[in-house]
Design goal:
The complex is a heterodimer of chains A (312) and B (400). Chain A contains twelve helices and two strands. With 312 residues, chain A is mostly helical. Chain A has a domain of 216 residues. With 400 residues, chain B is mostly helical. Chain B has two domains: 296 residues, Orthogonal Bundle (ABC transporter involved in vitamin B12 uptake, BtuC), CATH 1.10.3470; 87 residues. A two-stranded antiparallel ribbon of chain B has the order 1-2. A two-stranded antiparallel ribbon of chain B has the order 3-4. Chain B starts with a helix and ends with a helix. In chain B, 42% of the residues are buried. The chains are: A mainly alpha (312), B mainly alpha (400). At the A-B interface, helix 3, helix 4, helix 9 and helix 12 of A face helix 5, helix 11, helix 13 and helix 15 of B.
């Protein structure tokens, strides 16, 4: 029982962190048709910016300033690197962001060193939220979840109930028509890209003080975030939300489960499968990293547009 | 002319072990396998416009299958001549390619890229855990067994096995483009809906091209495994998948031999420079992004554009254009490398650094000379670039 509850809570908080990063990615994809390979690099940069700003001003100002810095960087990248190659097609835009990953990775290693930093949690947030089965449950996990939920609500409200949101949604559907109505569509694209980058940056600041801030941050999250947006349906914010939670909870449970394929066979009455060795004795906990991919294949096979994506 | 160049290149490649020492022959082996890998990758992209971010899956499958076969041969279970073993690796990769390709090619564009990426990541995740098949951290090792009087103990002898596979395989990849399947693949890359409308089975064609690409990627991996006699699950890692993308697009994806330029050139430079700089990947990444911005078809396209002008213009003006352009690029590269390496060394020394050692000289960080050099270089590059652009415009007007 305690395993179940703790895994569920950890899975939820990890899933909500995944959502914070994938929200920007899926928004940008929905708008520009570009899957930003460098998106998790923005997340990593957010953590590092947050660290640098936080050392000067403390955690709370960094929570605002660092995402703004990342937004500015995102705007520069969209304007000077992505827009010029737009005419060559989406593949080239994808490739530009792919190249950026190496540049950002190496620059981070150059500036901050090739090792994780000491990035302590603010004192006012490092207390126990509640006691659970004799263990203190850190409040910071709850804080991550709260930030993500507020963010989800804010984006939904912004896109549903404001004029800006209306124009952005219209620009996704009919960019030429929106342009004909006198709106500056390239500027809208720039804004969305910068906004998406800022969201990743915010996630980075929040996660950086809880998980290690290190040069491999981007790589660790990178592919999982792609899986989240594909499973949720490219471009669907709600889909990303559901998929993040699913993958967060699945991975969190898998880490603690020692089932093997042989156990599964035993369950249906085929005993002794563990004697076959090989794949039959690999514990689920050791291949927890593979679970999101299996989920992704299943979704792509059974529901190619993703859980909540629109059919093309 | 074309055939003369090919014959000269082949003779040159045959002479490599005669002319160079073992260390360099090994670098040449890496260049050859990287080239074949990049050509295999580009078969998918150039023809069918499918961008795979997980080709390490096939490269690694080729490596592991080859090592397993070598181990079987070592245990006297299997009697296959050593030079033929990489073919087993290629077939294993092809098998994986059929399965992965069947599912991946259901989709195109971004989805395809994501599926291939996920396949490689999945195999990587399994590879790190499944010790019986992939050998864990230490990986699997084997030894090359002698065959028909050849001991394969020297790098030179192995080089000829590699060359003997890579050149025909590259030729085969070229001729695939001329077969009906290749033409169909080109058509699919152009407009898949129309191809389907004409009654072709586009999915089957894409799967076949994918499998062919996987076959050659596996062959490249198998050859490398034969040389290294060792492989661990890192062969499935993201860096392997990424390097083939970088090689192909820096070299030029639109021309058949473009990926070879990128793969051979970058492998050679990487081998020469990896001891000198820690920031090799930064330079490669920057080169890649710049290439995407200013010459999306890569280095090969620049060559071809030059060749075209060569036929239509008096050569002295063209030599001047290329000299100016080359000078500009050289000046900018020098500026960047100087500033970046200076910064890298200053940062590792810490905040108290006043002077750093670079290129065998000590540079004072407060001395104006240290900063005048990159500024002067950048200015020179700027002037040369402006002149090159003016010259080019004049030449283009002359042609038009």
């Amino acid at each position: 029982m305690d395993f179940f509850v703790v895994s569920l809570l950890n899975g939820l908080s990890y899933g909500l962190l995944l959502f914070m990063v994938s929200a920007g990615l899926t928004l940008v994809f929905g708008m520009m048709g570009v899957l930003n390979f460098a998106h998790s690099s923005f997340y990593m940069l957010g953590a590092y910016f947050g660290y640098s700003v936080g050392r000067l001003t403390g955690f709370w100002p960094a929570l605002i300033v660092a995402p703004l810095g990342i937004a500015f960087l995102g705007a520069l990248i969209e304007r000077y690197l992505l827009r010029p190659v737009h005419r060559h097609g989406h593949a080239h835009e994808l490739l530009v962001t792919f190249g950026l990953v190496f540049i950002i990775d190496e620059l981070v290693k150059l500036l901050y060193g090739n090792y994780p930093l000491k990035n302590p949690m603010p004192v006012e947030l490092s207390f126990s939220a509640f006691r659970l089965f004799g263990l203190d449950y850190p409040f910071y996990r709850v804080f991550i979840a709260l930030v993500a939920i507020v963010m989800f609500g804010a984006i939904l409200a912004l896109s549903r109930f404001t004029r800006v949101g209306l124009i952005v949604r219209a620009a996704v559907r009919r960019p030429h028509m929106v342009e004909a109505l006198g709106h500056n569509v390239p500027m809208v694209f720039l804004g969305v890209f910068a906004g998406g980058a800022a969201l990743a940056g915010l996630a980075g600041v929040v996660a950086g003080v809880f998980y290690p801030t290190g040069p491999s941050m981007a790589q660790e999250l990178g592919v999982i975030v792609f899986v989240v947006v594909v499973v949720g349906g490219l471009g669907s914010l709600e889909g990303a939300f559901v998929a993040s939670l699913l993958i967060g909870i699945f991975s969190s449970f898998a880490v603690g489960v020692n089932w093997t394929l042989a156990d599964a066979f035993a369950l249906v009455g085929v005993a002794g499968a563990d004697l076959w060795g090989g794949a039959f004795t690999v514990k689920l906990s050791t291949v927890a990293g593979a679970i999101p991919f299996v989920l992704m294949f299943l979704v792509l096979l059974l529901r190619p547009a993703g859980l909540l994506g629109e059919r093309q | 002319m074309k055939w003369l160049a090919i014959a000269a290149a082949t003779i040159g490649l045959l002479l490599v072990p005669v002319l160079f020492g073992d260390r360099f022959v090994f670098v040449f082996i890496q260049m050859l396998t990287a080239s074949l890998f990049a050509l295999a990758f580009n078969l998918l992209w150039r023809h069918t416009r499918l961008l795979s971010f997980g080709h390490a899956a096939h490269f690694g499958a080729g490596m592991f299958a080859t090592i397993h076969l070598m181990r079987l041969a070592e245990a006297n279970v299997l009697a296959v001549p050593l030079p033929l073993i990489p073919l087993g690796g290629a077939l294993a990769a092809c098998l994986l390619g059929v399965v992965a390709g069947y599912f991946a090619t259901v989709r195109t564009g971004t989805y395809f890229a994501m599926i291939t990426l996920a396949v490689a990541e999945l195999i990587y995740a399994l590879g790190s855990q499944w010790e019986a098949l992939f050998g864990g951290e230490a990986g699997l090792s084997s030894m090359r067994l002698p065959w028909a009087g050849w001991t394969f103990a020297t790098t030179g002898e192995v080089y000829y096995i590699v060359l003997g596979w890579v050149v025909p395989a590259a030729a085969a990849l070229y001729f695939v483009g001329l077969t009906p399947l290749g033409r169909l693949a080109f058509a699919i890359g152009d407009d898949e809906t129309r191809v389907r409308f004409l009654g072709y089975n586009a999915h089957r064609a894409k799967t076949m091209v994918f499998a062919l690409s996987a076959f050659h990627a596996g062959l490249a991996g198998g050859l490398l495994a034969l040389v290294n006699e060792n492989v661990n699950y890192g062969a499935f890692g993201g860096t392997v998948s990424a390097s083939v993308v970088l090689h192909t697009f820096i070299g030029g994806s639109g021309v058949f031999l473009g990926p070879v330029i990128g793969a051979a050139g970058l492998t050679l430079l990487g081998a020469l420079l990896s001891d000198v700089t820690r920031l090799w990947l930064l330079y490669v990444g920057a080169a890649f992004v710049l290439m995407m911005l200013y010459s999306p078809e890569g280095l090969a396209a620049l060559f071809i554009a030059n060749l075209r002008l060569w036929r239509e213009l008096p050569w002295p003006s063209l030599v001047r254009l290329n000299l100016l352009g080359g000078l500009a690029v050289l000046a900018f590269v020098c500026t960047t490398v100087f500033v970046v390496e200076l910064a890298a060394r200053a940062l590792t020394e810490g905040a108290s650094a006043t002077a750093v050692v670079l290129f065998g000289t000590t540079w004072s960080l407060s001395s104006p000379v240290t900063w005048a050099i990159p500024i002067a270089l950048a200015l020179a590059g700027h002037v040369a670039l402006k002149a090159a652009i003016r010259q080019r415009r004049r030449l283009e007007d002359a042609v038009a």
